[in-house]
Amino acid sequence: MRSVDSAVEESATAGSRSLRLSQLTKEFAAFTAVKALDLEVPQGSFFALLGPSGCGKTTTLRMVAGLETPTSGTIHLGDKEVTYEKPYKRPVNTVFQNYALFPHLDISKNVAFGLQRRGIKEVKKQVDEMLELVELTSQAHKKPAQMSGGQQQRVALARALINKPEVLLLDEPLGALDLKLRRSMQLELKRIQTEVGLTFVHVTHDQEEAMTMADTIAVMNQGVIEQMGAPSELYENPRTTFVANFLGQSNLIAAEIQGREGGQVKVRVQGALASIPAERAHSESGSGWLGIRPEKVLLAEAGQQIDAPGDVITGGYITDVSFVGVSTQYMVKMPWGQELMVFEQNTGSRRMLSTGTKVDISWRPEYAFLLDASQDASAGIEDE
Amino acid sequence: MATLDDVAHGANAKRKLTGYWLILPGAVWLAVFFVVPFFSLISASLYDPSGSVEAGYSMTWHIQNFADAFDQYKATLGRSLLYSGVATAVCLVLGYVLAYAIAFKAGRWKNLMLILVIAPFFTSFLLRTLSWKLILADDGFVVDALQTVHLMGDDGRLLNTQFAVIAGLTYNFLPFMVLPLYASLEKIDLRLIEASSDLYASPIRGFFKVTWPLSMPGIVAGTLLTFIPAAGDFINAELLGSPNERMVGNEIQSLFDIGDYAAAGALSVMLMAIIVALVIVFIRRSGTEELV
To answer: Which is the CATH superfamily of the domain at A249-372?
Structure first.
């Protein structure tokens, strides 16, 4: 164990052993799954590839694992090109979507599989340590079929981690678990990643999962990366309607862009004037979508004082109220017919508003963002 | 008034009974056509050897029959096990490759290939073996071709040799090997093979560490389905072999023909016991006890 550890540390100090994809493309007979993808995953980071099914994220992962051959482009691990390297020669391991545990081997043999194939004879100590890490020591001699989904998931993780791969690939690893178990496994995975310090590349369609765990998220759609960055950065300042809708929810209101004034971009929204900080404006002329997250919208009964008001639009009325405990979600019908979502914390400072109440809405300009109107305002909205 | 529990018990009892009703027809069939003949065979093997069709037979617990039969036919017994063993091994190699190809590589041709595997069953066993006689005949094209390329001397022959008998057995029982192998290979999740490759196993090591053990139920089933009938077969030795290739089946058949039921019975029971013993050892060693 110690020698492997120090090997990992060595490679860490030897400089960047980052995973680099350049112009990576995968075409299948009928369609292009991944289009000229450029991506760099720094060593030791927890990286999430987030996107709806069919966006190319799993294909990308499989190309990194070597289970799929790219049509063009390259994959580098540090300075070494591995684009066409056989999967069993790459220092990369995968936690498969349905775990793919070997049903004929018990847990400890499943975990030892990778080490033994590399000709390591003394595996018991490492297997024991790994089982301890995933808290399955007592189950070492059970067969996979005798274990619950959550336990199998941890075996799959241990089986991959024990090899100390330079990159650990996780293909929707929590997809088969129920919500509660998923939550606790998210924290568990993050803890283990911090503990072992390996690079994790995590593929998921669950935006909450990606945001909880990843340092960096790349949002993928139709074979390309729409936007990449820290979770909060993506959430607060989405650059495309797809990202605005796929990560959380957004109100997108049609706006006419008036032009830039200093650090602000001015827009006209249904008669009212509003401004957006230039770094949050991803279009500077023509028409655009003014975006505001539902929890950033402030609400007050018509004519009443709004706390810390910014840009204001009047004349809405409430069409739907749902109380979810920590917050209340309102639907507000605006004079131009669009329904906006408003999430309000139940701080108790004001009574809940009822359906039909006439309201004004407001938002702080620094929370608004501006997107190009050529994009579909409903892109990335999940139909669930 | 019946409580809910009583109703549940009643339903349970009914369900249990249903199981027995379903077993009944098969059980009766087996009792009449397997268990009864089985005991009559055992008793025949213990007949007084001096009995004949004319004089009649009597059961005298004559255990000596077994020793006599063994002394007289041990070479034939050994030959039977050798021929059927070799044929089973050849079937396993050919059948595994074929089943693997059908399961993993055939794509849309899968069903057609499976039909081709069972196609020989549309003709009778006897006819198929007779046609092997033509194929391997001294003036047949196989012998001609081998002689032309000097792989075989001018007086060499295939018919009436061990090769012919084993080839016939292999041919006749190959489908019984292929089908169970296919069934168990086809069930293997391809992601397991990907996982083994992801975990540093080259395709060959992955095959021996994952595919082979997972196909073990098919290997065991196919081996038994091939070996057991092949060991008792007499048609192939009769049609494709000479008196030097006689198998136990041929001896039993002739013993019954001349009315020596005691020796025929003893030889049959001995063959059965040997096969059962071998099967038990084989299953133990292959680690698939759950099949027994």
So the answer is: Nucleic acid-binding proteins (2.40.50.140)
| A117 near B CB under 8 A | yes
How far apart are the CA of A157 and the nearest CA of chain B, in angstroms? 12
Calpha distance B158→A145 (Å, rounded): 52
DSSP B56: B
Res A382: pLDDT: 67
Closest by alpha carbon to A224, among A14, A73, A381, A11? A73
Kindly provide the residue ranges of all beta strands, DSSP E only, lying in chain A, ordered along the sequence: 19-27, 32-41, 46-50, 72-77, 80-81, 92-95, 167-171, 199-204, 216-221, 224-229, 251-261, 264-269, 272-277, 287-292, 297-301, 311-323, 327-333, 339-345, 358-363, 369-372
B209 touches chain A (CB under 8 A): yes
Tell me if A288 sits within 8 A of A255, measured CB to CB: yes
Residues 6+ apart with CB under 8 A from B238: B250
* pLDDT per residue as tens digits for the range A76-122: 999 999 999 999 999 999 999 989 999 999 999 999 999 999 999 88
Model confidence at A174, in pLDDT bands (50, 70, 90)?
confident
Q: Are A250 and A292 in contact (CB under 8 A)?
A: yes
Q: Which residue has the tokens 């899968």?
A: B110
Cα–Cα distance measured from residue A352 to residue A345, given in angstroms and rounded to the nearest whole number: 10
B95-130 tens-digit pLDDT: 999 999 999 999 899 999 999 999 998 999 999 999
pLDDT tens track for A243-270: 999 999 999 999 999 988 888 999 999 8
Per CATH, the number for A2-91+165-236 is: 3.40.50.300
Q: Is the pTM of this model over 0.90?
A: no
Among A67, A101, A163, the residue with its CB nearest the CB of B194 is A67
A67 part of contact set with chain B, CB < 8 Å = yes
B222-255 pLDDT per residue, tens: 999 999 999 999 999 999 999 999 999 999 999 9
For testing contact with chain B, the best of A4, A94, A109 (most B CBs within 10 A): A94
pLDDT at site A8:
43
Token representation of residue A97 = 């979507």
Q: Helices B125-135 and B162-186, interaxial angle, to 10°? A: 130
Question: What distance in Å separates the CA atoms of residue B97 and residue B181, rounded to the nearest whole number?
Answer: 10
User: Which residues of chain A does B202 touch, with a Cβ-Cβ cutoff of 8 Å?
Assistant: 86, 88
From A168's Cα to the closest Cα of chain B, the distance in A is 11
What are the sequence ranges of the domains in chain A? 2-91+165-236, 249-372
Q: Cite the beta strand spans of chain B per DSSP E.
A: none
Please report the pLDDT score of residue B112 as a whole number.
95
Q: How far apart are CA A292 and CA A251, in angstroms?
A: 5
Return the exposure string of B208-234: e unless at least 16 CB atoms fall within 10 Å of the residue's CB, then b: ebbbebbbebbbbbbbbbbbbebbbbb
Domain B66-291 indexed as CATH 1.10.3720.10: yes
The one-character DSSP state at A111 is: H
